[in-house]
Structure formats: C-alpha cells, structure tokens
Amino acid sequence: MLDNNLQFDSFHFDSLTIEALDTFNYLEKDQYLQSEFPFRERAFSTAIVSGNQLTWSGPTSFYQDKNLNQYAGGIDRFFQPLCDAFRNEVVSLILSQRNERFFSLNSYEIGVHQLRILCEDDQMGYPVPEGPHQDGFDFVAIHCMNIFNTSGGVTSLFSHLPDGELVFQECLNAGQGVIVDDREIFHYTSPISSIDGTFGCRDMCVITYKRIL
After folding, report:
1. Is 6 helix (H, G, I), strand (E, B) or coil?
2. Which residue segments constitute the domains of the chain, with CATH numbers given?
3. What is the mean pLDDT of residues 121-145?
4. CA 86, CA 166: separation in Å to the nearest integer?
5. How many Cβ atoms sit within 10 Å of the Cβ of residue 4?
6. pTM score of the predicted model
7. Cβ contact 43:28 at 8 Å
8. Which residues contact 121 (CB under 8 A, 6 or more apart)?
9. Separation of alpha carbons 204 and 179, rounded Å
10. Going by C-beta distance under 8 Å and a sequence separation of 6 or more, which residues neighbour residue 11?
C-alpha cells in the first residue's frame, strides 16, 4: 500500500544505463492509435512480483474495458515484449527500496509499459489520448526516463473523478516518478510539442500493479 494510506506519492529513481535507454530507439509503433501521425511507440510485458522475487510471464495481450478506456478499450492489444536490456533495469527499479516503501508484502501481477511519445514540427504527441482516467488496477507507477527537445507533458492527478480535486500537478523530469492508488485517483499527462520544430520525444515507463489474492 501507499505509505500512510496516501492516494499518491512522488519519488526519485536512479538513471537507466545507456544500454537500457538506447532500447527506446527500437520500439515499434503503437498500431492502435487513432491518428495519422504515429505519436506513440511501445513495448509491453507482464510479471509476478512476490517479496523480492520477480518472474516474467510469457507474451500476452493488454486489455482494458471500454468503460475504462474509451480511446482503445474493448480490444486485445498486442505489443512487442520488453527486450532483455530493459527488463534487467526494470527488475532493479521494481525491487528497489524506493518502491518497496509503497507496498505491503503482498504478491502482485504487474504490467510494464515501455513508451516513447513522439512529436515533431506541428505534430503533437499525446501521452494520454483517452484523457483523465483510471486503468483498472490497484496501483499505477509512472516513471520519466528521458526527455529530448519537448515542452509540455505535465502530469495531473485528480481525486475520485476525472474532473475532481486537483491534488498533484508537475512536469516529471528524468529520474522522477509518481505512484497512484488507481482505485482513488484519475491521472492525466498533457500533450507534448517540439521546442524547435524538429524531432522530440519523451521516454516513459508505466507499471501497473494488481494484487493477487
């Protein structure tokens, strides 16, 4: 659980290795976008976390109910799995003391989304095209891995409703993250645009946690 039953908490984490950061350059385009401009690239894998042990699962789809995601819900979405270099970094991140302080000693099924949001010229990138939302899990951890030539990307948290009380608003920089109680908080990140009109990107890792009873 979050410390002291908080609905969210922000944190810092160590930078990824150059090898792990480089894996963002090889992500495949998200085929489920409703846009001519491919503003998101993605990889996805799942695992089971129990205590200090993490076991990766086999390839699987990502599904959200249409009620949770009006933009791309109601279908099984398939993405390339995380590569080994990124997986190894994520294991350390998940099992670190920074994250252990958020949770009780339960077992969780996790989903790890490696994301690159793209922008260029007059094309904006949309980290959250579905708007303020919940994902249908117990907790969601949002990590900013790297930013290049972008403005925008402000993360906002709302209590209980998509238009509820604004309880957090910040543009996360590389090495910063926020974890939310997905049952209580709606989260959103604003679009990004290129600073100088050329290629820009924002590299993120989003980890969902669902308690295994």
Report:
1. coil
2. 3-211 (2.60.120.620)
3. 92
4. 33
5. 6
6. 0.91
7. yes
8. 194, 197, 198
9. 13
10. 98, 99, 176, 177, 178, 179
Amino acid at 53: Q
How far, in Å, CA of 187 to CA of 140, rounded?
9
Residue type, 92: S
pLDDT digits (tens, 9 = 90+) for 30-46: 887 777 888 999 999 99
Instruction: With beta carbons less than 8 A apart as the criterion, state whether 140 and 187 touch.
Output: yes
Closest CA to 157 of 192, 176, 175, 181: 181
pLDDT of residue 194: 97
Of 43-52, 74-83, 126-135, 176-185, the poorest mean pLDDT is in 74-83
Pairwise CA distance, residues 34 & 54, whole Å: 34
Q: What residues are paired with 56 via a beta bridge?
A: 47
At CA 6, angle to CA 185 and CA 73, rounded to 5? 25
Dihedral sign (CA 130, 66, 40, 133):
positive
Sign of the alpha-carbon torsion through 63, 110, 46, 113: positive
CA quadruple 201, 59, 178, 19: dihedral, nearest 10: -50
At position 69, the amino acid (one-letter code) is N
User: In this predicted structure, what is the pLDDT of residue 37?
Assistant: 87
Reported confidence tier of residue 51, pLDDT bands at 50, 70, 90: confident
User: Measured between alpha carbons, how far is 131 from 162 in angstroms, rounded to an integer?
Assistant: 8
